[in-house]
Amino acid sequence: MNMLSRVGQMRRCAANLSQTINQVAASRQKHTLPDLTYDYGALEPHINAEIMQLHHSKHHATYVNNLNITEEKYQEALAKGDVTAQVALQPALKFNGGGHINHTIFWTNLSPNGGGEPQGELMEAIKRDFGSFQKLKEKMSAATVAVQGSGWGWLGYDKESGRLRIAACANQDPLQGSTGLVPLLGIDVWEHAYYLQYKNVRPDYVKAIWNVINWENVSERLQTAKK
């Protein structure tokens, strides 16, 4: 095979690769806003309907929309081999991707039939790692209230040690991507999650949210994380 034939073959291979990447990008399923399993007003009086509607249908929807836009730009940068553009898109991927991940967990962590205390293996793990359920609530509440600016308080599972841990993440940084902990329970302390009802009194919001925590969902997440 002469040099011109080789060059032609390489160009055809490159064109085919680019076409394949573009086809994959085109066929990629876009992220969508998950439906809630309860009405916006179902968590009242602890979280009012107006907050839930805005939080879900506006704020979370914005993260989903911007994540899809950013991923499309990222696919284009990959297809072009534009590493500079790929790097420049990383903050938007982290912020909007984290926002989508975090809120998708958050909605399932809440329930109009929530509150009370966890049961079974989750409760045993809480007692082992924190001393009591009350101590978990106190420690997690303190860490969550103390978040500077916007962010999240988390109860996570450490796969290496097999223990539960409390962590706080700034902005929309996803817990697992930032710390390696598997998220079990998240409390959103961005002001859009509580300001319309609790104004700037974040501790009151954090205290109230324990009344709607879906411990069955948290238990299911623990079981999945341990596999």
How does this structure look, described?
By secondary structure, this protein is mainly alpha-helical. 60% of the residues lie in helices and 10% in strands. A three-stranded antiparallel beta sheet has the order 2-1-3. Strand 1 (151-158) and strand 2 (163-170) form a beta hairpin. The protein is globular and about 55 Å long.
Keywords:
10% strand; 3-stranded antiparallel sheet; mainly alpha; 227 residues
Quick structural overview:
The chain has helices spanning 3-27, 49-80, 83-109, 120-130, 133-145, 175-179, 195-198, 202-209, 215-225; strands at 151-158, 163-170, 182-188. With 227 residues, the chain is mostly helical.
What's the SSE blueprint?
Elements (H helix, E strand, L loop, with lengths): L2 H25 L21 H32 L2 H27 L10 H11 L2 H13 L5 E8 L4 E8 L4 H5 L2 E7 L6 H4 L3 H8 L5 H11 L2
Antiparallel strand pairs: 1-2, 1-3
Helix pairs in contact: 1-2, 2-3
Structural class: mainly alpha
Instruction: Give, in order, the helices and strands.
Output: HHHHHEEHEHHH
Helical residue percent? 55-70%
* Biggest β-sheet description: 3 strands, antiparallel
Count of helical stretches = 9
Oligomer: single chain
Residue stretches low in confidence (pLDDT < 50, at least 5 long) are: 17-27
What do the pLDDT scores average to? 91
- List the strand order in the largest sheet: 2-1-3
**Number of strand elements:** 3
Share of β-strand residues: 5-15%
- Please give the alpha-carbon distance between the first and last residues: 53 Å
| Gyration radius, rounded | 22 Å
